[in-house]
Amino acid sequence: MKYVYRLDALKGWFLAIFPILSLVLCMLFPVVVEEHFVWDLRWIPFLIGSLYGGYRLGFLLIAITLIIRYLTGGENGFYISCITFPLIGISSFFISKYYLKMSLLKKNIVSILLIFIFQVLTQFISTQVFGINIGISLWKQYFIIQVVGIVVVIILWEVILTNFQILEKIVKAEKLEIVSHLAASISHEVRNPLTVTRGYIQMLQEDVSSQTKVKYASIALQELDRATEVINDYLTFAATTPENNEHLRVSKEIQDAVNIIKPLANMKGIDLKLSLLEDDAYYIIGDSKKFQQSLFNVFKNGIESMPVNGELYIHLFLHSTTLQIKIQDKGVGMTKEQISRLGEPYFTTKEKGTGLGMMVTYSTIKNMNGTISVSSVKGKGTCFCITLPIHRNEIDT
Ligand code: ADP
Ligand code: MG
User: Angle at the Cα of 113 (from 107 to 118), degrees rounded to 5?
Assistant: First the structure.
């Protein structure tokens, strides 16, 4: 199913290659009947190509036909082709725009008409101008075969195109379903703790011992924290604002994300060791909020992986076309299996984890055409390496 995601590119190629290939094959391996008359079905791919493909493919097909026609010899035939192919070709890619919107029946009628016109034209030129005479019964046979051929090809072609359209629709529907599914489950994830909190606060109103009150209050607080956590990990990801594609300065974005996480680090007595590059010569493209959120989620995991008084290293490296952000902790580390599940929604090993942080990070970085690689040793620590493509600023002089 993977190729479905490249459907557009594929469709362009698909549309072009088949007519070209069949045209060339038709012309190279014709059924020769007479000295002056080359029997082949070249008009079918030629018409299909220029009607469905528009002017670019149309011109290409005209050029190919004439070149091959020239190379295969027969002067008169070549001159006739020089008139008929450009004439019919150019008129068919003018028709092309309307043709694509026609019903199947109309498409067939138009193509048959075109075949008829070209045939009358060829016949006229060859008898009047070059004095070549080909029996009328041969013309009839030729016409009938071409008509049958083009009708069959048009029907097949339409079936294939419809198939592509259906596939496209399925892919779109699938994507939408994932999004709506996620939105539903996240709101569920937030609503649950809120409901529990509400329940306990309600019970606080009743006359209970102060000991019970403390217990209820702490449960209510815990649940509120849980809801906050889900929102924190997911916040900008779920934001419905359209994606901004700004030019971002990486150092600044990292610095901002670090500032947001700092209180959490201080609370656990963890040192953030930063080494950034100050450089105006390049930028990355993405949404500032989402990018900061994804860094924040990685930083937070690093901090959470360590007991008190650890160190979290954040380094920025610059290469010719990419940059790397390495986030290294000396925490609990992960097993291979855990690494492979990173980014999966709701995958968490923490008691109060949401398993949403990495999902958000992976999806944002992927949208920015970046990659994430993780190396980790259980018990020793983890290194997240985010690689992003960079764009260079024009150097002002
Ligand atoms: P959460 O932090 O809520 O559990 P995440 O999606 O942020 O959800 O992380 C998923 C899981 O990945 C974590 O529960 C943890 O097991 C693992 N993980 C992520 N980063 C690290 C890290 N720096 N060190 C150890 N484990 C990590
Ligand atoms: Mg996390």
Answer: 130
